[in-house]
Amino acid sequence: MTGLLNVSASPHVRDKKTTTSIMGDVIIALLPATIVGIYNFKLDALIIILLCIATCVLTEGLFQKIAKRKYTMTDLSAVVTGLLLALNLPSTVPFYIPILGSVFAILVVKQLFGGIGQNFMNPALAARCFLVISFTGKMTDFTYDAVSGPTPLALLKSGESVDLMDMFLGTTAGTIGETSALALLLGGVYLLVRGIISYRIPFFYIATVAVYAAIYSATSLGGFSLEYVAGHLLGGGLMIGAIFMATDYVTSPATPKGQIVFGIFLGLLTATFRIFGGSAEGVSYAIILGNLLVPMIEKFTMPKPFGPSKKDKAKKETKEKNEIMPNTVKLFLITLVSGALLGLVYAVTKDPIAEQNEKKQQEAYMSVFETADSFEELEGFDSEEAGKILEDGGFNGSDISGIVIALDSNKEALGYVVTVVSHEGYGGDIEFSVGISANGTVNGIEFLSIEETAGLGMNATKDEFKSQFTGKQVTAFVSTKSGAKAENEIDALTGATITTDAVTGSVNAAIYYCDYLEGGAGNE
Amino acid sequence: MSKRTFQGGIHPYEGKELTEDKEIRPLLPKSDLVYPLSQHIGAPATPVVKKGDSVLVGQLIAQAGGFVSANIHSSVSGTVKCIEPRMTSNGVKVNSIVIENDGEYREVDAAPVLDDHKLTKEVIRQKVKDAGIVGMGGAGFPTHVKLTPQNDDEIDYVIVNCAECEPYITSDYRRMIEEPEKLVEGLKIVLKLFPNAQGILAVENNKPKAVKVLKELVESEERIVVQSLKTKYPQGAERQLIYVTTGRKIDSSMLPAHVGCVVNNVDTIVNIYRAIREGKPLTERVVTVTGDAVKEPGNFLVKLGTNCEELIEAAGGFVCEPEKVIAGGPMMGKAMSDIHVPSTKGLSALLSFKVDEVAKCEPSNCIRCGRCITVCPGRVVPSVLAKLAEQGNEEAFLANNGMECCECGCCSYVCPAKRPLTQVIAGTRKQILANKKK
Asked: Taking Cα atoms as reference points, which of B240, B144, B246, B166 lies closest to residue B200?
């Protein structure tokens, strides 16, 4: 024995897990999704992934060299950030986007706040949000099989059906890594088994979205729809977000109870953003907002130290506490209750709103058919069929959403009130009713919903514009900018030709459709 | 089997297979014996011998320096060589009595063994005190103090800590296997002090043999049960053990007696048996000498005061030069700078590692993974406490329940960033306790 032995404070053994091994496990867990991404989106995906990882690692190294800090490139955290960012990008983005995003993620979000463990936002997600805001068009251009198309979530939002199997397997449009729920779940299972993440954040996040979507579909979409709920769970970035982004150690609560609160909070935000927001997706923003609340959530969810509660201590005798309701159950109930409340508000306001709409509709009918006494639904009317008829007649930009027969006091038919929707408005769909006599004379038009530019397109709702149609019996109106001379000419609104054409076109569609019903020109 | 388990805890590599089948072998010292006057919690003992005195085995050589203190007896016969400061395993020099061993082991007359009906509470306590018995799990708290609560009738449980949750150590296990009668008899003596108490032998379920042996032995004992506990470190921590066996909880400001419990270690109980039934003071203990750096790991019955180097020799010496030698287990034991120190009452193991894995750990930034929070049996937040400790913010440290830390080491063990959490927190706790005393 020579010299002195090593001395250090206990404990003298350490667990094998290191920051690097944990990051390595996250990378392994992301492999299935990465492979599916490369399989789906081919070389583009591979290049974007490599670009992101390389830029992230290089940015980290360069910053640390310039700032004279310790190099941390080998802890693999920059690789994880790069890979996650790449998986959150569409495969069609030009190559400067992944580079820009990576630099933003590492430099601005991570290193400027002190490097690993110090950032308060998930670097990859913050970079994604930065890119979506800066390059909205490029960041929301999704393809699958080289064909551009909407994501399943966008389809779901517009009320269309989605292929759940495609979403589960990942054979659908979306960002490189988000499409395959199966691949992401595989990764999640790996992380759980390896003890890298706890079930708390992903489970409560996904469950909250499911409950929210279920309640929404049951109360607002005419009955509970499993397809709708499943679509929300499998679609968009929920899986990759819940399993990989929301569980990022640095930016999620470290306290077990806090993780449950965090998961529920993200679920509520995500579902609200998706269902009521302007965009079909909401995961990124939900997590970024959630990140900001982490210190507060942790503050209120600190564990109680081991020992008797103050009350027990006062009694000097500790009895086993009978926890009637575990906290997890409590929190889950809170979610349920808040979801139910939301549904309740909707249910309570549903009828008055419907009544209000009905009244508005009746008023519109009266204003476009003043001679009528009452109105009656046209039996056997089918909006889709009407659409086809219009299409056949060359009216592509309009649809007929409803039609009633105008009756006089003797219940004799005087004509129709057709409610048309123009898809060619400047600010979206324009819906209005047109009163048309049996002989084809237009009795008047009245708008039900219109969102054109104030001061320009909105002038369509003024009487001087609407009255141009009144009392005229023509087969088709045309708009003109040089002053209406002929019977069928309509003065275009100043600076709103598109609105004018949209309205005129839909009036013509209504005339055509009435004529069709009366067995007129269209049938000749 | 107890269904209850405490929150937190870890499952480190146990390493018990190295020595669990090795019988306890008596080890006779060759060189001088050294008895530090402070090898227990409380006041140092006062020497009652002087240089040149000849002593016998079991002779009192230093008397308790107060109520919270303990007697010290010679474990060999020979001559007092000197009384001088000597290095101990804690890395500090402590005034010690040095005795030259004559190798004859002449014993003092054993104290008379009393009939059962003469064994009053007072007599039992006095004999335990005379024998110099202290908590032999490592803390070294004088046992007669523990056995003297305010009201004997309020003690509901006497718990024997047979958990031995520290990895590598098997000294208690071998005692349980080889001398279970002494353990049970010792417990019965302690139960005489507390008329309303039940005796609990709390064994971890990674020692099925011990569970079986003890269960058979206490089958006919009405007041003693064996509880098999779900294996987890730190099962043997007093607060956790009380909770797991009785469902009662105490915090850092309370003593086990506050919730009607008395907790003692296996070797402590065995030595109570020896003191009462054999009339012998505490002069030896079982030490596990193990680790990958020793040739033949084993369990030894060691005369207190024996130089640790002789323990290593008894285990076949080192395979190669070790990087680290620990007095105790890997989780809470103390690393020694030098093995030329005496074995003391609290030394349950001597653990030698070829490689000091902790020295290779480079601490990096906390990644907020929350592992330390999950494993902390004290339910505090080590990452936050360590940060406050590093900042020297004692006020916030206290507000965050820093004193509830029991320094078990779980947080440092799991930390993937290899931050020395336990060390930093323990340092601040020591500072705060020291300031309180001023």
From this structure: B246
> Which residue from B335, B368, B413 is facing A249, i.e. has the nearest CB?
B368
* Domains located in chain A, CATH noted: 19-302 (1.10.3430), 369-523 (no CATH)
CA angle A275, A279, A284 (to 5 degrees): 95
Residue A407 pairs in a beta bridge with A374, A413
What's the Cα-to-Cα distance from A230 to each of A188, A207, A265, rounded to whole Å? Answer: 18, 11, 20
Of A135-149, A339-353, B73-87, highest mean pLDDT: B73-87
| Distance from C-alpha of A310 to C-alpha of B320, rounded to nearest angstrom | 54
**Phi, psi values for residue A181, rounded to 5°:** -60, -35
CB neighbours of residue B144 within 10 Å: 23
Instruction: Answer whether B436's CB lies under 8 Å from B400's CB.
Output: no
Across the interface, of A2, A21, A75, the residue whose CB is closest to B364 is: A75
ipTM of the complex in this document? 0.88
Residue pLDDT, tens place only, B50-72: 999 999 999 999 999 888 899 99
How far apart are the C-alpha atoms of A253 and B370, rounded to whole Å?
A: 8
Nearest-5° angle of CA A425, CA A428, CA A432? 65
A19 contacts B364? CB cut-off 8 A = yes
> What is the spatial distance between Cα B382 and Cα B377, in angstroms, rounded to a whole number?
11
CA distance A335 to A346: 17
Half-sphere exposure of B97 (CA within 13 A, CB side): 34
Q: What is the pLDDT of residues A443-489, one digit of tens each?
A: 888 888 888 888 888 888 888 888 888 888 888 888 888 888 888 88
Spell out the residues 6+ positions from residue B104 whose beta carbon is closer than 8 angstroms to its own. Answer: B77
Helix (H, G, I), strand (E, B) or coil at B41: coil
Nearest CA among A126, A47, A125, A31 for reference residue A92: A47
Alpha-carbon span A476 to A509, nearest angstrom: 8
How do B298-303 and B324-327 pair as beta strands?
unpaired
Domains in chain B, CATH or no CATH each: 122-278 (3.40.50.11540), 371-437 (no CATH)
Contact between A117 and B368 using a beta-carbon 8 Å cutoff:
yes
Query: What is the number of other CB atoms lying within 10 angstroms of the CB of residue A185?
Result: 17
Strand (E) or helix (H) holding A377: strand A374-377
**B window 194-233, beta carbon within 8 A of A:** none
Distance CA B411, CA B233 (A): 12
